[in-house]
Amino acid sequence: MDPESGETPPQGGTSAVERGEAKPSRRRKAKRHGKPRNAASPAHAGAGETADPAVGTKTSNDAGDATTASARKRKRRRGKSRGQDPQAGASLAVPEAQNATRVAKQEEGGQQGRRRKKNRGSRGLQGRPLTQAKTAAAARLASPAAVATKDHRGKPSFGAAHEAAAEGRGHVRDDLYAALDLGTNNCRLLIAQPTRPGQFRVVDAFSRIVRLGEGLGATGRLSSDAMDRAVEALRICAAKLGTRPIRRMRLIATEACRAAENGEEFLARVTAETGLDLEIIDRETEARLAVSGCSSLVGREARSVVLFDIGGGSSEIAVIRIGDSRSNRLANHITHWTSLPVGVVTLSERHGGRDVTPDVFAAMVSEVEGMLDRFQCPPVGLGDARDQEDFHLIGTSGTVTTLAGVHLDLPRYDRRKVDGVWLSDQEVTAMQAKLLSWDFAGRAANPCIGPDRADLVLAGCAILEAIRRRWPSQRMRVADRGLREGLLTDMMADDGVWRRTRARRFGPGQREEAGAKP
User: The pTM is what?
Assistant: First the structure.
């Protein structure tokens, strides 16, 4: 049965008509010289007839004879039509010319397609090749002059880089902010864009251990090798800043440059070689910036918090009492603060950081406790059970983030899993005991510590232990953030970008913008 018509097909195949009346097969429809292979003359020969191209008339033949004749004499007839009949030859020359043109176009298109595939790797996200203007802008951005340009006051200016970036992209984004923190141990940079009120999205980041304060405690000066390492890292930061139109930036230096005799001399060299103009901030500003950077990690239920930042050359501690009315800026609730002239680098150099025995660890804790005894501050979190629930510690430093990574048993450090995690008092004690039981090689082998921090982590734990003894708490929150985030938060708040964002969110045709926590 025929599945479409429901009738039985005739015997003898799919069709019972004579061969001469049968529909031509697809093979016979193949084109030759731009015309069907079995095409007839303009008179259109019918079934059972063949066309004589030499005379332009049709001759009647039997179906079988026509099939045999067409099979034997097809090539000869084509030759006769081209050689004997000029009119027929002219009519065939036109399809040949058209066919040659079409073949040439196909070959040209194939070459263009191959060129497109070859150049596809240099295209942007939208699949468009870089224009000449964009290429020229990128070349200008890569030049040192785009970074080291100075304005009329002699300050570093990135206007040339911004103009080049604007030319390459066709527009200028004026909502990017940058913060750089050159500390005793690390050089860190953040470039971010404001999103929801109090939050921003990180666009670019850089961090490198430079150990600028290496040997500072013994000599009182920054060493040549340490300064060279810092300048090399700052060159990378300058290149990143030069490729983006930064609306506002703030570049700071902390304890190492603050305490060194040649700190100002070093910063003058930084400006000359990188175009970056860093400012040395005082300890109170450093404490306030640390609080601003961690404000989003203080829960609404908290009434008092002790926030500490264990740095490389100093440790800042801020006592925060929130009360019933909470300000938009958590730094406004600081009641007492102090800056200890000790950090992981200076403490490990005085007591040794590679081979730390329990006695050496106890000596480090005792030294820090003596410094805290001179800090006059009312007791916090030592009242009834309710006070303990409303009080907690916040630690922002490589020490506490390392403890959290070891506690979580991470195969490699992951900021997303560490930032904001809670550690109980018992868990902190257990992690410190575990690190103290490891030798230097064991600490260096841990993926969350590494060889760069293996000789510093126990000094940080000693500072943490002294803080915990002064302000006992049932829990501690870990913050993988600090001065950079505080700088960005303050600059964005001063410019009122979040007020404008809030107004746009409720404007006609606007939707709420998704943001990321700093």
Answer: 0.63
